[in-house]
């Protein structure tokens, strides 16, 4: 008997809202409908296991098909099926109270994601691409009659006898004119590859050609022929659903290549598996990072019961681990109806904390198990560890025992080991330990050598994150400070006894200062006469440690843009005890004095990599003239 009715939604405005606002990406209609088929299939399997269904399960493969000429897409499962009464109950009644209030609140985009998550509207994503949707279903229940439901996207529907002869459901979408792009083999294959690649029930999308052996030829060599086989698009038992004891390293590496075909092998991986107080499985890989943030590439993929949801996982995965690759699967992550947005929930925070702990435990285990192997991977691992220490105090507390500091000699130390190494030599008269560091070993080599002559050690801090890590580490260290090796002459960086006094008289100092200011003729450089060892350079060019650090942080991002926009200002330190300064003072020809001062200044610029273009050409010519 044919029956007509009205979908019970209490308002005429709900369908336009579903079509226009609920789904941010219209391709997810296929994900929703295939997922529904998977649910129905898993339920019939469960009933059979419990003995509540005695019939033959048969082939449970879900089929996706399309007809470009007739403009339809079909999703067919062999799951539970539905009676006409069940269709009316589950499909017709979008039954929730206060629908008018819902529509009103939907005007505010901020409220939308909070509200729509409360209602199971996944099936209705079909109307984003279809003019008409037809459900043809036969329930598993004994004596059930097939039922057919038809709706054109309004609140009107028809339901009557169906044509299906085997258990399950077939959904037919008659595609609208605006969505004909989906009537394409490659388009549909791409969507299925994206969302259904790891679903737990086989998904068939037509057939594909495959080469198989076909005997041998006259020369005894294998012959091949092309045959058509089922195009099963998914792996029903991906590695994150298995126990680590069932897997080999090759399994993990093979899966990584499936996810990220163009990437190098990862450094190592972490298998996640927890069922209380929330359910979570997955595999996270530590990739090789080429000293740059690859946040837009090879993201972590979020699944819910093996259905791909999104690769925007910033609320689930701590920010500092966003560079990891891999898969997280949890049915306990709250999603809105389109599954495109995570919703605020205590489980999200718990999962975030769990992942942080698992990563910290894994790194600590690797460090303790084989320090040398850990050191060999540090250049790649270090970015994650340092970022984590900056981002989260809880992670810092764990990571301080396995974070490594590297010096310019390529040696590795933990924080405690390094403090023990430098404390006897690099403690100033104020009893503070000074950690010297370089950001570019080549351009700062003269300063590094100057420090090494005094048996001081210099750390190498040249990763993209180090400008922020330095600031963070200094705030955590007790009675210690960090200074860039070229921030001043070494005797001032580590002031043990007041350092050297300049031997120049006041008149001589004034004369030298005047000569250098005249030869430099640039207000960005402030000249000061200093006392230093005669063996040190005659001229050093430095930037204040605070300003240099703020500029480094601004360059690498971190809210210091104000400092990054400020002009560079340098201090020109003149070593009043150097023989060259004495030579300049004893020279009677002011032109020669200025030339020597300019040459000494340019030498200092060269040592810092600051002399370029015409100024560098003039320096080379002047050097030749002075030889």
UniProtKB/TrEMBL annotation:
GO terms for molecular function: ATP binding; ATP hydrolysis activity; ATP-dependent protein folding chaperone; unfolded protein binding. Keywords: ATP-binding, Chaperone, Cytoplasm, Nucleotide-binding, Stress response. CDD domains: HATPase_Hsp90-like. The keyword Cytoplasm applies. Signal peptide: none annotated. InterPro entries: HATPase_C_sf, HSP90_C, Hsp90_fam, Hsp90_N, Ribosomal_Su5_D2-typ_SF. The keyword Glycosyltransferase does not apply. ATP binds at residues 32, 36, 77, 82, 97-98, 169, 339. Belongs to the heat shock protein 90 family. This is Chaperone protein HtpG. The lineage of its organism: Bacteria, Pseudomonadati, Bacteroidota, Cytophagia, Cytophagales. The gene is htpG.
């Amino acid at each position: 008997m044919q029956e007509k009715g009205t979908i019970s939604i209490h308002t005429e405005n709900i369908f336009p809202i579903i079509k226009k606002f609920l789904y941010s990406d219209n391709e997810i209609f296929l994900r929703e409908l295939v997922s529904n088929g998977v649910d129905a299939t898993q339920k019939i399997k469960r009933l059979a296991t419990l003995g509540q269904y005695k019939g033959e399960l048969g082939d449970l493969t879900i089929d996706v098909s399309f007809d470009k000429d007739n403009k339809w897409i079909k999703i067919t499962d062999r799951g539970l099926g539905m009676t006409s009464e069940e269709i009316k109950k589950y499909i017709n009644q979008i039954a929730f109270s206060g629908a008018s209030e819902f529509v009103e609140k939907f005007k505010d985009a901020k409220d939308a994601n909070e509200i729509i998550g409360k209602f199971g509207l996944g099936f209705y994503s079909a109307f984003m691409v279809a003019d008409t949707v037809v459900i043809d279903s036969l329930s598993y229940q004994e004596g059930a009659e097939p039922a057919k439901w038809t709706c054109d996207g309004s609140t009107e529907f028809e339901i009557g006898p169906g044509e299906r002869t085997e258990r399950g459901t077939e959904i037919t979408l008659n595609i609208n004119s605006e969505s004909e792009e989906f009537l394409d083999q490659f388009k549909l294959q791409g969507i299925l590859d994206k969302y259904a690649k790891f679903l737990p029930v086989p998904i068939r999308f037509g057939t594909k050609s495959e080469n198989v052996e076909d005997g041998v030829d006259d020369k005894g060599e294998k012959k091949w022929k092309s045959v058509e086989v089922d195009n099963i698009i998914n792996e029903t038992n991906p590695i994150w659903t298995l126990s680590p004891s069932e897997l080999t390293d090759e399994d993990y590496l093979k899966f990584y290549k499936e996810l990220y075909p163009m990437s190098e092998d990862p450094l190592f991986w972490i298998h996640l598996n927890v069922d209380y107080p929330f359910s979570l499985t997955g595999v996270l890989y530590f990739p090789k990072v080429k000293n740059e943030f690859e946040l837009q590439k090879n993201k972590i993929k979020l699944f819910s019961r093996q259905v791909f949801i999104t690769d925007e996982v910033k609320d689930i995965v701590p920010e500092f681990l966003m560079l990891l690759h891999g898969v997280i699967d949890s049915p306990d992550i709250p999603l809105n109806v389109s599954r495109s947005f995570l919703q605020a929930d205590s489980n999200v925070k718990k999962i975030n904390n769990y992942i942080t702990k698992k990563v910290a435990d894994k790194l600590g285990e690797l460090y303790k198990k084989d320090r040398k192997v850990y050191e060999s991977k540090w250049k790649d691992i270090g970015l994650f560890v340092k970022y984590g220490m900056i981002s989260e105090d809880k992670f810092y507390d764990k990571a301080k025992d396995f974070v490594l500091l590297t010096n310019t000699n390529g040696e590795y130390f933990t924080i405690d080991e390094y403090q023990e190494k430098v404390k006897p030599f690099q403690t100033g008269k104020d009893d503070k330990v000074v950690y010297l560091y370089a950001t570019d070993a080549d351009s700062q080599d003269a300063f590094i050598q100057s420090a090494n002559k005094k048996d001081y050690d210099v750390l190498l801090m040249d990763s993209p994150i180090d400008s922020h890590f330095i600031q963070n580490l200094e705030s955590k260290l007790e009675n210690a400070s960090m200074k860039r090796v070229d921030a001043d002459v070494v005797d001032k960086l580590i002031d043990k006894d007041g350092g050297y006094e300049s031997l120049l008289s006041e008149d001589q100092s004034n004369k030298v200062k005047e000569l250098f200011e005249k030869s430099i003729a640039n207000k960005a450089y402030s000249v000061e006469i200093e006392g230093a060892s005669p063996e040190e350079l005659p001229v050093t060019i430095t930037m204040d440690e605070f300003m240099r650090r703020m500029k480094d942080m601004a360059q690498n991002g971190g809210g210091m843009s104000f400092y990054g926009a400020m002009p560079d200002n340098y201090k020109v330190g003149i070593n009043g005890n150097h023989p060259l300064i004495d030579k300049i003072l004893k020279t009677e020809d002011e032109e020669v004095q200025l030339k020597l001062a300019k040459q000494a200044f340019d030498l200092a610029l060269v040592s810092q990599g600051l002399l370029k273009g015409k100024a560098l050409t003039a320096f080379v010519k002047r050097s030749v003239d002075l030889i």
